[in-house]
Design brief:
Blueprint (H helix, E strand, L loop, with lengths): L4 H20 L7 H6 L6 H12 L2 H14 L1 H20 L3 H6 L5 H8 L2 H20 L1 H12 L5 E4 L2 E4 L1 H19 L1 H29 L2 H8 L22 H13 L8 H6 L3 H34 L4 H11 L5 H16 L4 H33 L9 H25 L6 H25 L5 H23 L1 H11 L4 H8 L8 H23 L6 H5 L19 H4 L6
Helix pairs in contact: 1-11, 1-18, 3-11, 3-15, 4-15, 4-17, 5-15, 7-8, 8-18, 8-19, 8-20, 8-21, 9-10, 9-17, 9-18, 9-19, 10-11, 10-18, 10-19, 11-15, 11-18, 12-15, 13-24, 15-17, 16-17, 18-19, 20-21, 20-24, 21-24, 22-23
């Protein structure tokens, strides 16, 4: 490790400040509602900064670097167009506004109110199951990023035996994230995430300016123009030769993102913590604008790492990276870690510490939020609905903390044993489809369609889960399936298909995830139309009209209208 004292100071100061603030927040936890939803007293700026920081974890950085190494700017062009939708959705307040009006403490509590207790328990169980495996791969990815970025050895001697270096790093960081999550629940998470978000924005600017001064635009241009025909790193209309990250992937990722919009149960604490529905809506708008800085920083460091790996002026640095990659046996890990290793070689003293601090903070924040979210979902929406007796306040909080501890233990064990076989963004999409395949239909239909029924919800969840599970098995065991098909089947189109795709499944995770989601949504609509006897009472669900809660009615403000200029009024 070649961190200088300056790097260590940059990492240590905000780290110690976060610890101090976390300890000061211990006394703020007064109830179960405080642990789950910060007492529903958070304002827009606190939610916007803390939720934005929670979403920008180190896994997002690794994913972005991996995709950029294959597509360059060509896919980012389409991503920027898709980004317009992500800016418009919070302005409209879709999902988040109505969800807050349901006054549900957890996402799946809303499912019980709208559908049934069975839907709540089943969807929660699938969420925890899929979330555990999706979340379970993240600690190792974040820890490996730090190992290869800092140039640490792959293994170390511990208790007389060789242990992969990422394991103790992972255990320490997950342990710290768990401590933050259970210390004060959502209260501590939001306050510390806010502080880390402020520090990160400052470091983003420093890194961006410094990187642009190290690499010239001419070098970037030459590196970007090195793509083969059909696999351009610059031309967004010349990516048809890309086997995975092409135009089809971009369209499907946008559609899938809209389908599961705000369906992330592990972020339910931020959605429930808003002071009222309007504050939650405004937090979503501000969070979208705030994330622009993080995306710009990720784009700049991606360009820098890509240039190091593809420009002849950095041949010596590239040789060092290739030497390090040659020691990694897993081909997918080699793909994931090539860009982080290039950044570690490129960045000098101070800058390396700044990016390391961002990565560490992103790791801790993302882990803490997911430990809190999945742990709360398991207890609140799986265990308690099946339990006859009510839990007292202090015992309730204790069990919530134990649930988070169990999630952390599983994630560490699974991360240590798991070996990736797919691009990270594809893998998370397909595993997440076990839950998201049906959940999008339940959320959109439950909040905006009065004719959605419990039978339709069951059809969507069961079909989405079954298809996604089958698709996951298909990808994991594709090689033996293809070998059997090519050897056992007679000559023909099917035999030729298996022979041509003997090594890898021809359908990536995004295609399979969208297929499962489309089938689940269709099942929800068809079954609901066949079984709906009378529309659901949406006023009661959203606490409107005769069901309004005192003190939360939205007062209509006087607005300027052009009709006033020409003398028109209500009469």
């Amino acid at each position: 490790m070649d961190l200088t004292p300056l790097d260590l100071i940059i990492i240590a100061i905000p780290f110690l400040l976060v610890i101090a603030v976390s300890l000061l927040q211990r006394g703020a936890l007064k109830s179960v509602a405080g642990y789950l939803a910060a007492g529903r007293c958070a304002g827009r700026y606190l939610i916007a900064t803390s939720a934005g920081e929670a979403a920008a974890g180190v896994v997002l950085l690794v994913t972005a670097l991996e995709v950029f190494s294959r597509t360059g700017f060509s896919l980012n062009f389409w991503g920027s167009i898709a980004g317009i939708l992500t800016m418009l959705m919070p302005l409209i307040g879709l999902v988040v506004y109505r969800y807050r009006e349901t006054r549900s403490l957890t996402f799946h509590q809303f499912f019980e109110t709208r559908y049934s207790k069975g839907i709540r328990v089943y969807s929660s169980g699938i969420n925890v199951f899929a979330g555990l495996f999706n979340f379970g791969i993240q600690p190792a990815i974040g820890a490996r990023f730090l190992v290869y970025f800092l140039g640490l050895p792959e293994s170390m001697t511990l208790a007389g035996g060789a242990v992969p270096t990422f394991v103790p790093i992972m255990l320490f960081l997950v342990g710290f994230a768990l401590w933050m999550a259970i210390l004060g629940g959502q209260i501590t998470i939001m306050v510390t995430d806010f502080l880390e978000g402020v520090f990160s924005m400052v470091l983003y600017i420093v890194i961006a300016v410094a990187v642009l001064s190290v690499i010239s635009l001419g070098q970037v241009r030459e590196a970007m123009l090195s793509g083969a025909p059909g696999k351009s790193f610059v031309d967004p209309f010349d990516i048809g030769g890309q086997p995975d990250f092409n135009g089809v992937y971009m369209v499907l990722s946008v559609l899938f993102g809209l389908y599961i919009y705000r369906g992330y149960a592990w972020q339910q604490g931020f959605a429930s913590a808003a002071r009222n529905a309007h504050e939650g809506k405004m937090a979503g708008i501000l969070s979208g604008w705030r994330s622009t800085g993080g995306r710009a920083m990720i784009g700049i460091v991606s360009v820098a790492a890509f240039t190091v790996l593809n420009h002849p002026d950095f041949a010596a640095q590239r040789a060092t990276v290739e030497t390090g990659l040659a020691q990694i046996s897993n081909p997918q890990i080699r793909t994931q870690m090539s860009m982080p290793m290039a950044l570690g070689i490129l960045l000098g003293p101070g800058l390396k510490g700044a990016l390391c601090a961002i990565a560490v903070f992103g790791f801790i924040v993302s882990m803490a939020v997911q430990l809190h979210g999945f742990g709360s979902t398991f207890l609140q929406d799986v265990v308690l609905p099946l339990r006859k007796r009510h839990l007292e306040g202090h015992r309730h909080v204790r069990y919530l903390r134990l649930s988070a501890l169990g999630i952390a233990a599983f994630a560490c064990v699974f991360s240590t044993l798991y070996q990736p076989v797919e691009y990270l963004v594809m893998l998370t999409s397909l595993i997440g489809a076990l839950y998201f395949g049906g959940i999008g239909a339940l959320v959109w239909g439950g909040l905006y369609w009065s004719r959605g029924t419990t039978a339709g919800a069951w059809a969507a969840m069961l079909l989405g889960t079954a298809l996604s599970a089958g698709f996951n098995l298909l990808q994991q065991f594709w090689k033996p399936i293809a070998a059997w098909g090519a050897g056992a089947l007679p000559s023909g189109s099917v035999h030729a298909f298996f022979a041509a795709h003997a090594e890898r499944c021809p359908w990536n995770g995004m295609v399979l995830a969208c297929t499962a989601a489309a089938c689940a949504a269709a099942a929800y609509i068809v079954v609901s139309l066949l079984t709906c006897r009378e529309p659901h009472n949406m006023d009661r669900l959203l606490h409107r009209g005769a069901y309004a809660v005192a003190g939360e009615e939205m007062k209509e403000e006087k607005r300027f209208r052009w009709s006033q200029v020409i003398g028109l009024d209500a009469n």
